[in-house]
Amino acid sequence: MSAAGAQERAEFAASFLELGPHAPTILPGWDAPDLLEHLLLRESLPHLMVGSALPGPLGRCADRAREDLRAAPWEQLVERFRTGPGPLSPAGTMDSLSGDGELLIHHEDLLRAQDGWEPRRLSAAQDASAWKALGLLSRVVLRMPVDVTLVSPRGGMRRRARRSAGSVRVHGEPLELLLWASGRDDVARVRIHGDERGQQALHKGRRGL
After folding, report:
1. What are the pLDDT digits (tens) for 117-165?
2. How far is CA 12 from CA 43, 46, 106, 134, in A?
3. Closest by alpha carbon to 117, among 18, 8, 7, 6?
């Protein structure tokens, strides 16, 4: 685990403890326990994340795993998350390679659902991680007929569309751009500039996984 990843995980765990198990998230139908359950399954039992949709014994095993998580004390679950994935967990490898993008995004899913939220101040290492995550994620999640240039204090990156109808520039801090690229328009603080055709094409496309 990188130093930035360890810091992000520790702050995320602190947010879970501070806000408690009744806190909402910006994800439709998910509260804090749903989000924490998702993260724990992702790190320890990724093959069970589809839950009861799995056939036969696998589906029942997934259901039992979820029931066990829901029955455990909140503080115990948060501490398990704080400890992080084991050395053989694919989630740990993925986070290290991707700049801890999923942790950064899901932390904001929790924080930005709270009344009166304001963007938190990231460390230089966390900011660099968000920029790294954006560089990888934006290649996958931007599915729009428009050329997009992402602009932050760390620089810019351009993502060209195969059949572009125009171009836009999206300005913001790396974390805000990461949230925008993942489709979290309601909470991402970005500024979008571009010609009329580009703006129209932007709304016809899709972002997020």
Report:
1. 999 999 999 999 999 999 999 999 999 899 999 999 999 999 998 888 8
2. 15, 20, 9, 19
3. 18
Residue of 128, 111, 109, 129 whose CA lies nearest to 120? 111
Cβ atoms within 10 Å, residue 57: 8
Residues 72-76, mean pLDDT to the nearest whole number: 94
C-alpha neighbours within 13 Å on the C-beta side of residue 67:
7
Reduced to 3 states (helix: H, G, I; strand: E, B; else coil), residue 35 is helix
CA 169 to chain CA centroid, nearest Å: 22
Beta carbons of 136 and 165 less than 8 angstroms apart: no
pLDDT tens track for 91-118? 777 777 777 899 999 999 999 999 999 9
Burial 34-55 (b: 16+ CB within 10 A, else e): ebbbbbbbbbbeeebeeeeebe
pTM (2 d.p.):
0.88
**Cα–Cα distance measured from residue 23 to residue 39, given in angstroms and rounded to the nearest whole number:** 16
Instruction: Please give the structure tokens belonging to residue 56.
Output: 């036969």
d(CA 86, CA 103): 16
Going by their DSSP bridges, the two strands 167-171 and 147-152 should be labelled as: parallel
d(CA 188, CA 109): 11
The CA-atom distances, in angstroms, between 129 and each of 23, 39, 57, 97, 209 are 26, 19, 39, 10, 19
